[in-house]
Amino acid sequence: MILTTRHVGLVVSNLDRSINFYRDIFGLEIWQQATEEGSYIDKVVGIPNVRVEWAKLKAPDGSLLELLQYPTNPSPAQFENAPSNRLGCSHVAFTVVDLQATYQKLLANGYHCNSAPQVSPDGKVKVMYCHDPDGIILELVEELGV
Q1: Which partner from 9, 106, 124, 126 sits 20 to 30 angstroms from 99, CA to CA?
Q2: Could you tell me the residue range of the domain that residue 60 belongs to?
Q3: Within a domain: residue 25?
Q4: Same-domain pairing of 12 and 65
């Protein structure tokens, strides 16, 4: 039985760049940061002789986003603006305060967005998809209070 969602983990190609993105664009704060290596982490992730550099970023509501970089074992596949129907984790969704301002900030910093914010058919939210520096899909939602 699952009690709660602990965090969402994303493998990134450059930890510092991703920290900057999630901190500067979305205001997440570094909560913990570390490097792990040795038999314990080798067994947990199933990769021998691995080194994992990670940072857990905290949102104002206390939810956590974990960014992981594997410098000793980088991913062989890189996605540039992964398609929405790719198998596996589809996207991470965040509720934001001002989606239009976030959209403008993403564009001003050269990040890809599938579209401008769209109002849902029921008029309750604005929604858009964008991509982080590694092409990971983020769904951004602003609740309209209707």
Answers
A1: 9
A2: 8-69
A3: yes
A4: yes
Residue pair 67/16 in contact (Cβ under 8 Å)? The answer is no
82 falls within a domain: no
Residue-wise pLDDT tens digits, 58-74: 999 999 999 999 998 87
Specify the CATH number for the domain of residue 98: 3.10.180.10
In terms of Cα–Cα distance, which of 81, 120, 126, 123 is closest to 100?
126
| 111 neighbors 80 (Cβ within 8 angstroms) | no
Instruction: Give the predicted TM-score (pTM) of the model.
Output: 0.89
The domain total for the chain is 2
DSSP code per residue over 72-132: TS--S---SS--TT-SS---EEEE-S-HHHHHHHHHHTT--BSSS-EE-TTSSEEEEEEE-
